[in-house]
From TrEMBL:
Residues 101-196, 410-545 form the Plastocyanin-like domain. It catalyses: 4 Cu(+) + O2 + 4 H(+) = 4 Cu(2+) + 2 H2O. This is Multicopper oxidase CueO. It comes from Malikia granosa. Transmembrane segments: none annotated. GO terms for cellular component: periplasmic space. InterPro entries: Cu-oxidase-like_N, Cu-oxidase_C, Cu-oxidase_fam, Cu_oxidase_Cu_BS, Cupredoxin, TAT_signal, TAT_signal_bac_arc.
Length: 546
């Protein structure tokens, strides 16, 4: 496989850019610029041999669908499942018994207003805690890692789900153990429903696991016995762990059968460090699709795009109308090639990462090396004839989401960088769990200017406790600018978000409303969701004073 420099792939990305803000007629878009038709066909060819049925949520077992109000007693355990065909892989899991059924990492269904009462019991030999990623809960229940559950101990959660409909997720957040535990399996999805969500599902006749498909993207390494490998070198700890085996819902080389209808995909980047440049490909072209929602729920209107970046921790809600794809031809969900922009040193980090990765994975010599930014087929979608007439259309309205209000105060600056000694920093400091680095007042409406150094890496910055709105992007790299609209905003910047990718050299202005309904002072963290970066210092504790 050919290697290219992480700083060489800066050619135009081509695409629909800011895209129309309301649905239009489907058409396959032109081949993304910077890629030839032959290059796109080569990506599609990777998927021709895919044969493993995509793992989908069922009524029990791994990713079984469970009401959030039945998620009451949760045991953090060591278990094993079949990930690679014919091999048993040890994993870490959230184990639950409910209604006579057993669940591992259940996909939770909640209604806005539901009361969650959860007892977490830790059977591991490491401390852990559940972080409810994206939910606006009080800091006692946030699972931010400032208080953890020791081995053999337990913790009770009690909170009301107050958030907009969206796909959130839950995962561990004990500092010092986050990458290891998440990589080994401790993570799953939490769907919140409200009236907007119910309306969309009814309007498009959507059913979870059939025409509404959650897709969790991850990359792993395995040894010859099928056991997960996680042993980052110093370079990988600093740059972020990237595995060479691509997984969708813990399925390698997956195939999904989909009807010729509108299908909804709920996407989560659950990787430790890998970002994806996603597109749906057919016959050498990128197919148009509609961005319906982001981390924190539905957009006001669908936005037509033909590709999108997805960084660790981010979620996207997309609608694909397969009636307009060419009949009898598979569609490939792919990650198009891009420059990951690992330029945090005075040398080309690509070669260093490649060398370190190869040395660390010598025992798995049979695996093809897959670097971040490579052209990758992730999943093949085989289109089937619809069993009954389907005449639904992409709606022109999705929710009553208002345009963000821009506070008039001077922005608070958040400068992302590193100290040259193996630590990632926020405003020059590294994480100290005993230090509150910043204080804000309850009810304050602030703008933050998140600035990433030129000599850096992309950082997906995640805010605990509150979601926010993106106001402006400045200084975006060449591969991002063609995707942007007014004020440099990307399509996914138009929604409510809790995780924001900030590319090297970018300055991104966001608006945050620190209003909440909790009692007393609150204590949260702000950090990079490249999990190794958070462990290497890029996390900051902040307090919200009542």
């Amino acid at each position: 496989m050919s290697m290219f420099s992480r700083r060489q792939f800066l050619g135009g990305m081509g695409a629909l850019g800011a895209a129309a803000a309301c649905p239009g007629a489907w058409a396959a878009s032109a081949t993304p610029s910077g890629l030839s038709t032959d290059a796109v066909l080569r990506i599609e060819a990777q998927a021709t041999g895919f044969s493993n049925p995509l793992r989908l949520p069922g009524t029990s077992g791994l990713f079984g669908v469970l009401s959030a109000t039945d998620f009451k007693e949760v045991h953090v355990v060591r278990s094993e499942i079949e990930v690679l065909p014919g091999q048993r892989t040890p994993i870490l899991a959230y184990a639950v018994e409910s209604g006579g059924k057993k669940f591992l990492n259940p996909a939770l269904l909640a209604r806005r207003g539901d009361e969650m009462r959860v007892k977490l019991i830790n059977h591991m030999d490491q401390p852990t805690v559940i972080h409810w990623h994206g939910l606006g809960v009080d800091s006692r229940n946030d699972g931010n890692g400032l208080n953890v559950v020791a081995p053999g101990q337990q913790m009770d959660y009690a909170f009301t789900v107050q958030d907009r409909s969206s796909m959130y997720w839950y995962h561990p957040h004990a500092h010092g153990f986050i990458p290891h535990q998440a990589y080994h399996g401790l993570a799953s999805l939490l769907f919140v429903e409200d009236e907007d969500e119910a309306t969309l599902r009814k309007e498009l006749a959507l059913a979870l696991g059939e025409s509404e498909i959650p897709l969790v993207l991850q990359d792993k390494e395995f040894d010859a016995q099928g056991r997960l490998q996680y042993a980052p070198s110093a370079a990988q700890s600093f740059g972020g762990w990237v595995g060479s085996r691509l997984m969708v819902n813990l399925t390698e080389r997956p195939v999904l059968k989909a009807g010729r209808r509108i299908v909804r995909f709920r996407l989560l980047n659950g990787s430790n460090a890998r970002s994806y440049r996603l597109a749906f490909l057919q016959q050498g072209r990128a197919l148009g699709f509609y961005l319906a929602g982001t981390d924190g729920g539905l957009l006001a209107q669908p936005v037509r795009i033909d590709q999108t970046f997805l960084s660790p921790g981010q979620r996207l809600d997309v609608l694909v109308d397969f009636r307009e794809a060419e009949a009898g031809r598979p569609v490939t969900l792919a990650s198009l090639p891009f420059d990951p922009m690992h330029q945090e040193g005075g040398h080309d980090m690509a070669a260093m990462d490649h060398s370190q990765h190869g040395a660390a994975q010598g025992a798995a010599a049979s695996a093809t090396m897959v670097m971040e930014g490579d052209a990758l087929a992730l999943m093949r979608i085989d289109l089937t004839a619809s069993g009954s007439p389907y005449n639904r259309r992409i709606p022109t309205r999705l929710s009553s989401l208002a345009k963000p209000a821009e506070p008039v105060d001077t922005p608070r600056r958040m400068q992302l960088g590193h100290d040259g000694k193996g630590h990632w920093t926020i405003n020059g400091g590294v994480f100290d769990h005993a230090t509150v680095a910043m204080t804000v007042q309850r009810g304050a409406r602030e703008t933050w200017l998140i600035e990433n150094a030129e000599r850096s890496m992309p950082h997906p910055m995640h805010l605990h406790g509150f979601s926010f709105r993106v106001l402006e992007r400045l200084g975006s790299p060449a591969q991002i600018r063609p995707l942007a609209g007014a004020r440099g905003l990307l399509p996914q910047d138009l929604g409510v978000v809790d995780t924001l990718q900030v590319w090297p050299g970018e300055s991104v202005k966001v608006a945050i409303d620190f209003s909440h309904t909790h009692t007393g002072d609150q204590d949260y963290v702000f950090h990079c969701h490249t999990l190794e970066h958070a462990e290497a210092g890029m996390m900051m504790r902040y307090a919200v004073k009542a």
